[in-house]
Amino acid sequence: MKYFTSPRFFVLLCLTVGLANASCNRHFVLRKGGMYTRFPMDSTITDDPAFVRLYAPYKQQLDAEMNRVVGRTAVALTKPGNVPETLLGNFFADALLTEGRKLHPEAEFSFGTKGGLRTELMQGDITVGHLFELMPFENELVVLELSGASVLQLAQFAASTGGQPMAGMRLHIANGHAADIRIGGAPLDTARTYTLVTYDYLANGGDNSRGLENPVNRINLGKKVREALIDYVSGLSHDGQHINTKLDGRITTDE
After folding, report:
1. CA quadruple 47, 48, 49, 52: dihedral sign
2. Structural domains of the chain sorted by starting position, each given as residue range(s) with its CATH number in brackets
3. Which long-range contacts (CB under 8 A, 24 or more apart) does 46-50 make?
4. Picking from 4-13, 136-145, 147-156, 167-176, which range would have the lowest pLDDT averaged per residue?
5. Cα-atom radius of gyration of the chain, to the nearest Å?
6. Burial class (CB in 10 A: 0-12, 13-18, 19+), 160
7. What is the pLDDT of residues 169-191, one digit of tens each?
8. Distance of alpha carbon 127 from alpha carbon 149, whole angstroms
9. Which of 19, 35, 72, 217 is disulfide-compatible with 145, CB 3.0–4.6 A?
10. Which residues span the membrane (predicted)?
11. What is the overall mean pLDDT for the chain?
12. Which residues are registered as beta bridge partners of 108?
């Protein structure tokens, strides 16, 4: 795995920093008749031994941490695009809810999106690097208190997009619409307020999500989603358990 540690990356970084420090302007304008030199960022760039020696200790530390095994999955956690419920989505949503409840015990369900999960996890050892690849963003856990009407909107969004990762919530998709919506095993009550664990990207309107834009209350938990995933997997490993996520029918469809 490469975590931006190649010499080419550092050359590009140095050039970028140099340009950023060269001027306070927001942009550069190429003057008429101006001269420029093109620097191709490819295999023609050779390693600078002095520079390699400089960053080598940091790269070793980074590689050691990224290769650290935090757990193991007994099944491949995949996310085929043509089904409403996936093993990867269930794993992710279960992790959000479990770790979210440690910080906010009143949390009732969790929600994410398929697009936010950037890789699959193959059967076998799970390293810190695998979880960085799964969630490479700086997203943080958020608790939202939602009206029942907003939860209905969220369920309809999930149904209209073919199903999304969720835990503590179940629904049936019929002709692209959500039906038989249940939170914690009980039918959705639009007169109630519910407590959701998600992440700031979605809470801020990312992925064109619906139902999250007008929460009754919002609590930022101050923990990155990636850290929550690492803690979830590490916790299972500490208890002598492997990940053994199953498809449990939390999202069903007529098709």
Report:
1. negative
2. 7-66 (no CATH), 69-253 (3.90.780.10)
3. 46/7, 47/7, 48/7
4. 4-13
5. 22
6. middle
7. 999 999 999 999 999 999 999 99
8. 40
9. 217
10. none
11. 89
12. none
Looking only at the bridges linking them, the beta strands covering 140-147 and 193-199 are antiparallel
Q: Which residue bears the tokens 């919002």? A: 218
Could you tell me the two tokens for 48?
């600078």
Of 182, 174, 175, nearest to 250 by C-alpha is: 182
Question: By C-alpha distance, which of 183, 191, 181, 67 is closest to 129?
Answer: 67
Matching residue, tokens 């906010």: 104
**Rounded to whole angstroms, how far apart are CA atoms 232 and 213?**
28
> Which amino acid is present at 19?
L
- Alpha helices for the chain (secondary structure H): 7-22, 49-66, 87-103, 128-134, 148-160, 200-203, 225-238
Joined tokens for residue 108: 């009732």
Q: How many CB atoms lie within 10 A of CB 253?
A: 16
Band of pLDDT at residue 46, cut at 50, 70 and 90: confident
Provide the pLDDT for residue 241.
Answer: 96
